[in-house]
Fold these 2 entries.
Entry 1:
Amino acid sequence: MKSRRFLVIAAWVAACVLAIFAIHTPRSFAQSSGALAKAQAAFDQAQQDYLQGKYDEAAKGFEDAYGARNFPQFLYNAGAAYHMKGKKTSDTVAYTKAVELYKRYLAEDPQATDKAKVEKAIAVLEAEIKRLAALPVVAVGSGSGSGSGSGSGSAAPPTPVAPSAEVQSLGEVKVRGLVVIESEPQNATIYLDDKKRGAFATTPWSGSLDGEHKIIIEKKGFKISESSIQADPSKLFVLKAVMSEEGYLGWVEFASNIEKSEIYMDDKTIGSIGRTPFAQNIKPGKHTFYISSEGYDEYKQELEILPGQTYTVKADLHGTPIGKINVQGLGIEDSAIWVDGQRLCERGPCLKSVPQGDHTIEVRRSGYKTYVRRVSIQAKTETQVKVALAPEPSRSDAVVAYILAAGFTGGGIYLGLQANKYRDDLTSEIKAGTPPPDSNDPRFLKGKIFAIAADVSYGLGALTALGAIYYTFRDKGSPSTGLIDVRALAILPQLGPNYAGIGMETHW
């Protein structure tokens, strides 16, 4: 008897434990993989029925799929089926069911990206229901005779009427596919295509995707899962990642006071591994982490990563006031932009951040005059420089002057040699004791004339050479110019469907 009581008590305790476990087990775990398979089978059949115009069967199939796995998208598809039936047959009952299902869809997914579009469809269909109800009806009866008292009849609308222009404007409604991403264990982080873009969602997740994507699933202490999917907007696709434990890795969580700061590990030339906030498994060993954001001093930390351990890298970035410089202009695509002797952009247009203060800007282009300007950059401003480069002038006048200078100098040399020749001849005769018999020997006059002519040629050559040098280095023609416009950059909070943060707004 005691043994029997013990068995009863043990069974009662076991039942209580199972009940408590069932209460505290996450809903997604309680739903078996068989339920998901049932939902997929119902979805596939409903999709075929929809394409064949069997709207009642399609709607029931989508509702069955929702009964197996309550994804809101199934409710939308059921509503779409009734929507199309109402449009084809002017059936107010079908329109009413479509409105009910659309409303349930929005109640289940209040953050739906198509909320405004669905709300518009609801309003249009409700107006269409009222319009159809106000149409005159005819009696459809059976029996013989033509008298008013013969046969029996019932009120019914005439043959289907054309939908209103508002219903027509909604277009052909198409059912939607669904992508389901699950993992074991759950609450893993999902990255779409690239981890640098930040976390996309956490498992379990369901929603719409289109095209080919790389799905990265990661969770602390588990091996990372990577898969490629080809999402079809008309089908149900299920991705379930079973992640094995990865005890030999360490887990590092990154954060900074400036959101979306770039994170680098060991070698910065490889590129960032992500943006704050961020977390991932890291192989054991000594690693150097860098966290930086434009306009802030870089944060650096070294860590010795041990297997199975969790680490936190939190950067407190301190900024240097910065402004932006924006260099534009005709032909800027072939120009290099330099700031303070350092190349800022290989080619324009050039929009870069620079520290607050005075800077020297140079815009260089082959065959054009260099534009040089000293500008003062203020914090939270954008200094726009519109440059107009002037072409380098021709130096043909300098070339002609050099040629003339060479000609005059050459002529001076020749004349000087002739003067020296007469002088040397006369000197030789005097030394030989045979001086010229007449002091009016023409060689004296010719020597003087050649000497004077040589001096004049040398003088002209020197003056022409100076002119050539002047023509070479003089700044001929209009200089390169630039217009400077300073605009304020206001930092404002921004909120989007997939992010929250701050942004810059320009005023001028």
Entry 2:
Amino acid sequence: MLAAQQRPRLIDERGLRTDGRRPDELRPIRIELGVLKNADGSAIFEMGNTKVIAAVYGPKEMHPRHMALPDRTVLRVRYHMTPFSTDERKNPAPSRREIELSKVIREALESAILTELFPRATIDVFMEVLQADAGTRLVSLMAASMALADAGIPMRDLIAGVAVGKADEVLVLDLNEAEDMWGGADMPIAMMPSLNKVVLFQLNGTMTPEELRQALELAKKGIAEIYQLEKKAIKEKFVEVS
């Protein structure tokens, strides 16, 4: 009862969310490539107040050699939240959630990278969450995708993703922290848009079949917008280099 009384209102009488967005609007997005000189590829991806930096090293020879695979590269992925990324200082040691999300992101990236082109090699991908305000797994995945592109690693497509959820029973695109904490559902989804292929799909909470259908359409709309921004960031990097 007390928790229900303390729950904030997520959609106001004008139909706007706590950060002033309409239900179908994304948070502001900023993408920058080549931010680390010592990495083969790097990127910063900001979505609202969530900020992630990613670095890629490789392809390079696998050590120890007995762990190499004869038909494809080994992708090693680490998702990590910095101690200062949340309101309360986070323990710098890897948490169970970080280990789980590292695996989820690795599996998504493996579907995009042409791993068969680099047998007996390894590619290392590091993601550091600098500031967390909901959507860190998706922003990290997209930062990694952009860093891989910056490194020139062949991929089937870039990865774009967004979360759809329910705020006061209204479907909303790109959850913020309040909606993630107090909303009725959280559905992160990531795709390779040009191939129309889903690489990550999760659902926390409950949705009716009709809500799920509408949420998927809303997610695809947001993903298409993000995908255009990703391609723009790559084009700008090439212009800068040339």
